Amino acid sequence: MFSNKDITQFAELETPFYYYDLALLQQTLDSCAVAAKNHGFHVHYAMKANFNHRLLDRIKATGFGADCVSGNEVKKAIERGFDRNQIVFAGVGKSDREINEALDADIFCFNVESVQELEVINELAAKKNKVAKVAIRINPNVDAYTHHNITTGLDENKFGVNAWDLPACADALRQSASLEFVGIHFHIGSQITNLDVYKSLCVKVNEFATWFEDRGFVVRILNVGGGLGIDYHNPEQQVPDFASYFKIFGDFLEKRDNQEVHFELGRALVGQCSSLISKVLYVKNGKKKNFIILDAGMTELMRPALYQAYHQIENISKQDVSAAVKYDVVGPICESTDCFGKEVLLQETQRGDLVAIRSTGAYGEVMSSHYNLRENVRVAFGE
């Protein structure tokens, strides 16, 4: 909930803007760090969720590493002071330039997604007289039961090495003098709220770790990815249950004494710490539909248009909840998909009211665009 002081402050700022609650961010980071430490687990922050500098600085200071999916994310992690020995580079399509730059930066590990990528990294590392640490990202064919656009762990997905290609991977590793195999990596999807899914993942991790060990490989790292979801319908329940999440892996992973367990969390760390604040430009009342037209659109928050994602929407200028009206809440972009919510029950709304779209800390600001020649989205911070 926003205080009267918050709303007064928002009224003085030019909309739309992302408002970041840094105190909530820190509370979330601390909760995750304590829960992970109880099991001796290592956490890397998935930078694709949000790379706002203020957030990155808090995450780095908490002691987390960085999970990067592009060369520029690797650069950003180094620029913001993340320990190079805690930076991992994933991604199904790493370019030669990105690989070379990561080799020059001496990052901890490449999460490799194909036999051909192993060959490319080996060749590029050899030219630099370097040895690249690699983990094999395996596609475990585990259904995450989430939106099909953010499922990544099925045979039909482009990500990772399929089980039938593992013998070729093992051969490539044995033949590659410029590669050091350190472990295996998994990531089955995003916005996962059914923790039983992770039990199924643990079974697969155990099987594949044994597969590599039976063939003479030492598996030092079990990187189980991330994907832990947040409650978009109840944004006041702001800090995810990290203790229950990590306990699943503590209970079901067959971890050896010489092994480390790594995680790549993004949305769960930053998702609830931000709201998109927008102003009502117009109200259009019709026979079948009532529309609220905001000054924020899909250019500021892409998730509803891209994933049909739900975000709780609140008219924070109105305290009286007695006069409620159903509205379609839309933006100004010249696209019919520029819609944040249909039939949203809100207080009777007027031009100039402020609207908060909640739970936008992950895949919000970072996915904003200049379509329709829109300006850069603004940001504001609170403690």
Automatic annotation (TrEMBL):
Domain of life: Bacteria
Segments traversing the membrane: none
Residue span(s) of domain Orn/DAP/Arg decarboxylase 2 N-terminal: 41-270
CDD domains, per database record: PLPDE_III_DapDC (cd06828)
Pathway listed: Amino-acid biosynthesis; L-lysine biosynthesis via DAP pathway; L-lysine from DL-2,6-diaminopimelate: step 1/1
A single BP term in Gene Ontology: lysine biosynthetic process via diaminopimelate
GO molecular function: diaminopimelate decarboxylase activity
N6-(pyridoxal phosphate)lysine modifications at: K48
Gene3D superfamilies reported in the protein's UniProt record: Alanine racemase, Lyase, Ornithine Decarboxylase, Chain A, domain 1
Keywords of the record: Amino-acid biosynthesis, Decarboxylase, Lyase, Lysine biosynthesis, Pyridoxal phosphate
Active-site residue numbers: C334 (proton donor)
Protein name as annotated: Diaminopimelate decarboxylase
Organism: Pedobacter westerhofensis
